[in-house]
Amino acid sequence: MKRALISLSDKSGVVEFAKVLVEHDFEIISTGGTKKMLDEAGIKTIAVEEVTHFPEILDGRVKTLNPYIHGGLLGRRDVKSHVETMEELSIAPIDLVCVNLYPFKETISDETKDFADAIENIDIGGPSMLRSAAKNFNDVTVVVDKADYATVLAELNEHQTTTLETRKRLAAKAFRYTASYDALIAQYLNHEIELLAPEKLTLTYDLEDTMRYGENSHQPAWFYQDALPKKYAITAAKQLNGKQLSYNNIKDADAALRIAREFEGPAVVALKHMNPCGIGQAETIEAAWDLAHAADPISIFGGIIVLNRTVDQKTAAKMHKLFLEIIIAPDFEPEALEILKQKKNLRLLQLDFSAKDETPGFETVSVMGGLLVQAQDMTLEDPTKWTLVTKTAPTEAQKEALLLALKAVKHTKSNAIVVANTKRTLGIGAGQPNRIDSTKIAIAHAKNDIDDETVLASDAFFPMDDCVEYAAQNGIKAIIQPGGSIRDEDSIKMADRYGIAMLTTGIRHFRH
To answer: What angle do CA 141, 130, 48 make, to 5 degrees?
Structure first.
């Protein structure tokens, strides 16, 4: 008879699976809770200790780590010496392994569990059996996913065995499964010992979706989710309306959520092509929308909108007038949903904003032949740490405007310049090869709204005084920048020449 070894944490569907195996003349070896379930279902099983001739020891930590198990898995049926050794030692071949592992991910995701619980849920015997079976795929079928039960049973019904092609595919899946499991354990332990830069970087992600295409229609693309999902992330959003998110939608939505995280009061972020095109803050979300829209009514067309308060009917009615790609908010009033859902392709996403301050993971960027890893830029802007470097000091209103401009410039592609007042961005210059061009673009957008409260923020220092002079000549009253240039004094003197205030933060916010 053929033999199958079944040992599962997730036992759903196993009784039906095992019944068909028995119909195809499989003996079932099993352990613990799986054996009990199969026995109660009337399926005859063989206990592992009957095969190993050795009892479970160390509270079940050792039960399948035994030559009678691994010899049965690894012995090659096409190698005469293997067959002779197995016969000599009375090791019976095992033809199928159906195993999934201790719930380590679920344990570390459970806030009621501690470090000791996590360690006890590191499976040792399971991965060993899977790896042995997968290595010997010429002779052994390995099943780690209940989604594959139907395929295996269909082939048994048709061929009395599984095909080599299927066994090879299942083996690859088993190695992916154990690799991901081990990677998660490594990540967890690295975090416990506060290791920031391990000599081997082990990351694991789960396939969330197959994209229609990538940045362009000729590029295939896939969306993977962190194996330990975050609450404040595009992956956690519930889609209430609209077609599938595209590759570019996801990148833009992520960028917009990073900006929205900066604001406590009612705020609206409008984003286009990874750069903010309008940010408004006010006493109500409707007023914040009006300000964000006014910031750049042209660029907002086809944009991504994030509102950090519930979308009400009046705000929805205003947004409905425009073509927008995505609207993200913590909630939508029923009347607001009714209005917005009239556009079938408009993506509406609901997300829990209460977790916006959760500690983020590191962010990665692929380059040819490697990966760059860095901590996210989560610096909180603290006006008490700003340094006044000019003779003129900013007014309280200008300080408030500087804070808004700094929050915006932090998330704008460098070279980045943002012009703002206390309520909204007025002009944004992003991604130019030189800073003076970004300054001119931002000021050109803001031109008709510049007054005594208008300020300018730069993501990095001014390499020369031309940006300061241009800003002053066009009505800017206060500037904030990191400082640190060997020509800082030139910029400071230029600010003093025009009687405008300049503060430095000491913190650069490049975003390439």
So the answer is: 90
